[in-house]
Design a protein that fits this description.
The protein is α+β, with helices and mostly antiparallel strands. The chain has four helices and 15 strands. Strands 1, 2, 4 and 5 form a four-stranded antiparallel sheet that branches. The radius of gyration is 21 Å and the shape is globular. It starts with a helix and ends in a 31-residue tail after the last strand. About 35% of the residues are buried.
């Protein structure tokens, strides 16, 4: 038996907590949750999943690779970040996994290097595709970077492939993402029945890296840059036919 007064007290506590929760949600929330009916708070894309994988009960195994795509609304603005991780030592010993992950990481870094006022939006795709092809990887052209600010996906559109028709140039104060996706196989995709998960048709692995960028008067600020405690990081690149043996040892990703 619970006294009526205690019931009222509990109801009062619940109302207070609910009000605080609602207030907190107005200030911060995971951007993907319920975005166009997306059911979760982040995207988890293992192995052959290109992007927008929905978290489920699948158990990760030694040798898998996994992309985590995190987006957050806080203080009136959205930010978007993703990185692909090695699951266990077997993944780091797999040449194709290392090649696609490290090449994608480098593609993002090379694109960030040319962000400054006056750089055409179409220039990033040329840099990305040129480096991807040099490592035997293909760019998945369907997906690109996007503007991001008080809205989640406003213009501009940032293609990651060369010979694109992107309009516009970088200007100080702009914020947008660059987020290339590469595969070691064919750059063709298929949707799963959930209408969100996008995977390669040939089952080959993919990798993606993303940062939210602010164009400054003199260059760029990486708003989602990692720190000394950030997980992940580059590993040595396997030997390539042209003699290339290692990935870059410094990275913004």
């Amino acid at each position: 038996f619970i006294p009526v007064r205690e019931k009222r007290l509990n109801r009062s506590k619940i109302d207070i907590l609910d009000a605080k929760g609602q207030n907190g949600m107005r200030k911060s929330y995971p951007s993907p949750l319920n975005y166009n009916h997306f059911p979760k708070s982040l995207c988890t894309s293992p192995n052959e999943v290109v992007c927008h994988g929905i978290p489920d009960q699948r158990i990760l195994l030694d040798g898998d690779i996994l992309n985590l795509d995190i987006s957050l609304y806080h203080g009136g603005y959205h930010a978007d970040l993703n990185e692909t991780y090695y699951i266990g030592d077997r993944a780091k010993d797999d040449p194709d996994s290392v090649r696609v992950i490290e090449t994608t990481r480098e593609c993002l870094d090379k694109a960030i290097d040319i962000v400054k006022p006056g750089t055409p939006f179409g220039a990033f795709g040329k840099v990305i595709e040129q480096h991807a092809k040099s490592r035997g990887c293909s760019v998945i052209a369907t997906w690109g970077g996007h503007g991001i600010n008080t809205e989640f996906h406003p213009p501009p559109w940032i293609p990651h492939y060369s010979k694109n028709k992107a309009v516009g140039v970088c200007k100080a104060g702009m914020t947008f993402t660059i987020e290339p996706i590469l595969t070691v196989g064919k750059a063709r995709e298929v949707y799963w029945p959930d209408n969100w998960t996008n995977a390669t048709v040939d089952g080959n692995r993919t990798a993606q890296f993303e940062h939210t960028l602010l164009v400054t008067e003199t260059g760029v600020e990486v708003l989602t840059a990692g720190n000394e405690n950030s997980p992940g990081g580059p590993v040595p690149m396997p030997a390539m036919p042209d003699g290339t043996t290692k990935a870059n040892t410094t990275s913004k990703s």
